[in-house]
Each structure stands twice: as C-alpha cells, then as structure tokens.
Amino acid sequence: MGHTLAEKILMHHTGSADLKPGDLVIVEPDFVVVHDIYTAFLLEKLHKMGVKKVWNPDKIAIMHDHLSPACLKDDPKSLEAAYQLIEEYGIKHFHATGGIVHQLIPQLGYSKPGDIVFVTDSHTTTYGAVGCFSTGIGYTEMAAIWGTGEMWLRVPSTIRVQVDGKLPNHVYSKDIILRVLGDLKAAGATYKALEFGGSAIDALSVDERLTMSNMAVECGAKVGLFAADEKTAAYSGAEYDSVSWVRPDNDAVYEKVLRYRAEDLEPVLSCPPFVDNVHPLREVKGTKLNQVFIGSCTNGRLEDLKVAAGVLKGHKIASNIKLIVTPASNAIMEEALKRGYIQTFVEAGGVVTPPYCSFCEGRTMGLLSADEVVLGTNNRNFLGRFGSPKAKAYLSSPEVAAVSALKGEITDPRDL
C-alpha cells in the first residue's frame, strides 16, 4: 500500500521504509522558531533544564510579531528575553520586526518542501502549503529541541480533501477551508493530517494555499499539506526535481476522503461564536457591521490586498465603519505601496497598520466594545478574543470584507 504525504515526509526524515498511523517516530527538525510571547518562558525553561548549548543555532530563529509594538506592562520583559537568548545561545536568525511569523517563515525560505518545522504557535500548520510538515508546539517542547535537536511525533492518520473543477467567480480558497471546517467541525481532525488535492486545488496560487493550511488547525489538524508542484518550487526557491517526491502515492490509504465539486461551492462565512459555525453568505447578508478587518497570517498577503483594493478603488467606506488593514509582512507592505493598494485603503477611509499580528491577536488595534460586530479575514472568532465577550465576529474572504466595508453591512459581491 502507498503512503500519504504526511507519512512520506516522516519516512524521508527517519529513513523508515514504511510508516503507518499511530507509529511513534523521533525526528530532527529542519528549522524551529519561537516568537515573542514565549521567549521569557523559554529562557526560564532552558535554565531550569540546564541547557548550556543549543543543538544547532543555524536552525533556530526568534521573531517578534505578537508583542511588538508592546502594549502591556510585561511585554518589554518578553522582548528583552529574546536578546538574552541570542547572547547566551548564539542564535543566528532574529527578526525584531518584519511581519507575522507565519508569513515570514515561508517567505524567507525557512520552510521548504519536505521539511519538518516546529514553532511555538498553533497556526504553524500554515507552511503545509509548500509541502512542509509544520506544526505548533509548546515552549517546554521547544526547550527540549534546543537542547537535544530531537522531537517525537505520532504518525497522524490523514483526511484527504479533494476539490475538483473550477471555482466560480467570487469564491476563494478561504471559502473552501471554511466549508471544510463547517463539515468537519472543531475537533473533526484532531491530531490528523489534512491533505488537499484535486484540479481546483492544483489551480490555486501559493498565497491561496497558505490561507487554507493556516486554518487547518481550526479543526484540530496536526498539519495541513499540499503536494509540491512547480509553483511551490518557484515560491520556495527550490528546483522542482529535488522536491517532486513531496506528494502522496496514488494508492495512499486515507482515514476519510471529503469530495467537493468546485462549481458547487459558494461564498461562506464563519459566524459567531465559533469558527466551525459556517453558513452561506446569502443567509447572513444584511447583518450590520461596526468594523472590518483585512489582514492577518490568514489573509494579509499581496493577493488578498489586491482583491480588497480592487473593490475599494475610487470609493469610500460606509460612514459607520472602522476599516483596519494589516499587511502580513514588510515586503508585502512595500509591494502594496508600489502598486497603490495602500493608498487606495487610506483614500477609502481605512487605517493601515504596520505588519504584525494586529487586531487578530486581540491585544491591540481595534478591540470591540459590547454589542459591536466585526467582519474579518482572520482565522478565529472566539467570544472575548477581540475585547468584550458581548461583541460578535464573522470571518470571510477579503472580497466579501471589502464589499461589506463599502455598504456597512455583510454584503454579497455577486449582488453588486
């Protein structure tokens, strides 16, 4: 019997001729990253464990994206801990600014097809878009990796998500992954691999794939994987021949296969109070809004900004709307400036922030008061995440968010 993509990557790293779901393996990761929320905890744990020297400082990075700019009294302590880690352990890769960790890692080539990458954040599943087995871990596990260079994993069973055909106009990869989450529910893929494939999936850009892998964790998935292709290789700066093995076998064995006809898909929204509370846009259009957010590690990439700017060009947002736009990285911000997208957002009445976690993390930028309603392109809408627990959050594609900002209510772009 053949193997799934998750199994093949783990076999490649362990030298195993065969692996099956439930097997335990020990791997050496290709790269690991800790971000600013956990730097102080990691430093304390390393000291308690007696770690004097890290296994490979070239395979470790520290990134600031959640707490910088600092807004709470303990934030500077965490940011300062990063500098202490660098000094004590000789860490070579440090990004005090530059963008969101889950954009920077694939963008800078820290995650490549066939790699194994661990980061202290749940949305580490994002890099599965480039065929990387990437998953979030805690700071205690991270400390153990720094000291030993090893990490254990249980080989996950795989759910195949097969989407064939051609997506209709106004339907995006965000709609695909929200539909999947609505069908699987929040715990439907716990410690399983999601493997995306089919002709509609093959047609997606890497930016669109990153959106889907990013949200794989919202149904509990360990990883969210795409096979490597020419687009993957070009994005990752790799020769395709060297990564062509990063794909499932034709006779791979899956726990379950979810099949979708692309032409049947439509714009959908994640509705309060849970990500898996997914409904067709037509059922919730007309809902009044107070705020719209376009950005995050889910939909803050250049293609997302292009779509939103195309909607807003030459128009003004509704008078009752606060529009916040956050590019996912400095490089995206720079290119968006060159193309005029940033100017479009400002001229439409929006606020453009520096590239960082922004509104999505629920600590700074646009927090909500009781009974306010926000529509965002981010990945979570949990009660209380964005300020008052009485506020409501919906999640959508960038196009729906932009059109809704113009109208001041949830709006279907197909109606315009």
Quick structural summary:
The chain is of the alpha/beta class. It has helices spanning 5-14, 39-49, 75-89, 101-107, 139-148, 173-184, 199-202, 206-215, 230-236, 240-243, 281-284, 296-299, 302-312, 330-339, 341-348, 398-407; strands at 24-27, 31-35, 60-63, 93-95, 116-119, 133-136, 151-154, 158-164, 193-197, 223-226, 256-261, 268-270, 278-280, 291-295, 322-326, 351-352, 373-376, 392-395. The strands form 5 sheets. It has a 5-stranded parallel β-sheet with strand order 4-3-2-5-6, with helices on one face.
Q: What is the topological layout?
A:
Elements: H1 5-14, E1 24-27, E2 31-35, H2 39-49, E3 60-63, H3 75-89, E4 93-95, H4 101-107, E5 116-119, E6 133-136, H5 139-148, E7 151-154, E8 158-164, H6 173-184, E9 193-197, H7 199-202, H8 206-215, E10 223-226, H9 230-236, H10 240-243, E11 256-261, E12 268-270, E13 278-280, H11 281-284, E14 291-295, H12 296-299, H13 302-312, E15 322-326, H14 330-339, H15 341-348, E16 351-352, E17 373-376, E18 392-395, H16 398-407
Parallel strand pairs: 2-3, 2-5, 3-4, 5-6, 8-9, 8-11, 9-10, 14-15, 14-17, 15-16, 17-18
Antiparallel strand pairs: 1-7, 12-13
Helix pairs in contact: 2-3, 2-5, 6-8, 13-15, 13-16
Q: What labels describe this entry?
A:
5-stranded parallel sheet; alpha/beta; 18 strands; 18% strand; 416 residues; 33% helix
